[in-house]
Write a structure and sequence with these properties.
The chain contains two helices and four strands. With 101 residues, the chain is of the alpha+beta class. The strands form two sheets. It has a two-stranded antiparallel sheet with strand order 1-2. A two-stranded antiparallel sheet has the order 3-4.
Length: 101
Amino acid sequence: MKIKKNNIIFTLCISTMLGIIVGILNLNNYNLDNHNTELYNNLPVTRAHGMKMYDTSTPEKAIGISDYVFVAKINKILRTEYKNQIQIKDDNKVKTISSDP
């Protein structure tokens, strides 16, 4: 019984110490990323992370940021093909639905 109690206390101590160490390391990384801690030619160095944000509200703006663009115009719809049709029963009615492969 005493051995189990000692094991539990030992495990809790190790877990607490690991938690404190991880917290200190995360705080250290936070300080490096968000505060000017380095100087280059007596100027502060600020670290920044790039983020790609694009305005795709119109086709012209969406095409402007793309590497490859496929443009098409539908003149008329000849037919509609439904692939992988299955029948399901819903509220005592049989429905036919289809899905892509």
